[in-house]
Specification:
It is a single chain. By secondary structure, the protein is an alpha/beta fold. The protein has two domains: 3-95, Arc Repressor Mutant, subunit A; 160-344, Rossmann fold (3-Layer(aba) Sandwich). The chain is 45% helix and 17% strand. It has 16 helices and ten strands. Helix 7 packs across helix 10 and helix 14 crosses helix 16 (313-323). The protein is globular. Bound molecules: S-adenosylmethionine.
């Protein structure tokens, strides 16, 4: 499993540091988000500067500026050199510099604007079972999410962060027997783009809400895939799903409650051609193996989504069987506990 999947280990002896580390996690988040908000890591990319210089550039006063930079060094995001200058750590240079292929700025902004405020209501969500995000009463979290342009862009960028590690595994599946796929809830098309690059014989499509069609078109044009991946706008609850050999549901089923998941898989069965398949990936949970990241993913769904949560592989197989598919687990995806499950439709 990847390092994103680590749980905080229980120390052999009770330790105040263990508890304090958890308590002050919020402070660390604020330090990272404040640095990213100022684009500090982009400013320091390939360069170094003193606290005074950086303070002047960002309007931060001393001695706070120095404390802030030293805290970032303590978090392993900056290196504090003996000559009194600061520079990016390797991790900051790779993930926190704007324009880098693995830049996670969208995810940071999405957490700050959308997920973290919802986490504030965790206690209420636990007591009421109701989501705590801005559109808690509207039914779908995507209604309010897509109304705000900046939050929408941050969300769509952050979806690429979530999928980048599983692209390889999806591409490694044997696609030779299939001619087409639709990525249902495929957002701005990153998965579809990568898949069709690895298996160019496939006709590729994304089915998603019409509100993001412009973002999809711009992203596909930027990646040079505008002629290779087609956008199908619609609502997967009220519109039929486009026909294809394979339908993919990536990080989609966990957004919704059990009845909606079963409905989507029934609709998928109608849309998948005989001999085809449905592919599902989500951070599935297991009661026999505690995973902090999978449990946190489940709690994000509790506070943010419309009745969603993480589910087990066994539940997923049951829903697939009910819909008519023959289920198989392809395996963990080595990324935030994602598991890839496939359901085959007989010829
Ligand atoms: C969590 S994202 C998953 C993105 C991507 N598939 C991934 O692997 O991370 C869920 C996607 O479902 C889409 N979606 C939500 N409600 C929908 C609906 N009613 N009909 C179609 N798409 C919907 C969202 O726009 C979003 O792109």
């Amino acid at each position: 499993m990847s390092d994103q999947n680590t749980s905080v280990p229980e120390p052999e002896e009770p330790s105040i540091g263990h508890v304090m580390g958890i308590l002050t996690g919020f402070w660390q988040t604020k330090i990272l988000l404040t640095a990213a908000e100022s684009d500090l890591f982009t400013e320091l990319s390939g360069a170094s500067a003193t606290a005074e210089e950086l303070g002047k550039r960002f309007g931060f006063l001393m001695p706070g500026a120095n404390d802030f930079l030293m805290a970032l060094a303590g978090l392993g995001l900056l290196r504090a050199d003996e000559d009194g200058t600061f520079r990016n750590s390797a991790a900051a240079e790779r993930y926190l510099v704007r324009g880098r292929p693995e830049f996670i700025g969208g995810y940071l902004r999405f957490c700050e604007r959308e997920l973290n405020p919802a986490w504030e209501g965790l206690g209420t969500a636990l007591r009421t079972g109701k989501p705590q995000n801005r559109s808690a009463l509207e039914g779908s979290p995507y209604d309010s999410l897509y109304r705000d342009k900046e939050t929408k862009e941050a969300f769509l960028e952050s979806m690429d962060v979530n999928t980048s590690v599983l692209l390889q595994r999806l591409g490694d599946l044997d696609w030779s027997g299939y001619r087409s796929f639709i990525d249902v809830g495929g957002a701005r098309g990153s998965v579809a783009h990568h898949l069709v690059r690895q298996a160019p014989h496939l006709t590729a499509g994304v089915f998603d809400l019409p509100q993001i069609e412009g973002d999809f078109a711009a992203h596909m044009a930027a990646l040079g895939s505008e002629k290779k991946v087609t956008f199908h706008g619609g609502d997967f609850f009220s519109d039929p799903l486009p026909e294809a050999d394979v339908l993919i549901f990536g990080h989609v089923l966990h957004n919704w409650g059990t009845e909606e998941r079963r409905k989507l898989l029934r609709k998928a069965y109608d849309a998948v051609r005989p001999g085809g398949a449905v592919i599902i990936y989500d951070p599935m949970i297991s009661n026999s193996r505690a995973s902090l990241s999978a449990s946190m993913a489940a709690l994000i769904m509790l506070v943010w989504s419309a009745g969603g949560g993480e589910y087990s592989v066994t539940e997923c197989h049951t829903w697939l069987r009910e819909a008519g598919f023959r289920p198989a687990t392809i395996g963990p995806l080595d990324a935030v506990d994602d598991v890839l499950v496939m359901g085959r439709k007989e010829r």
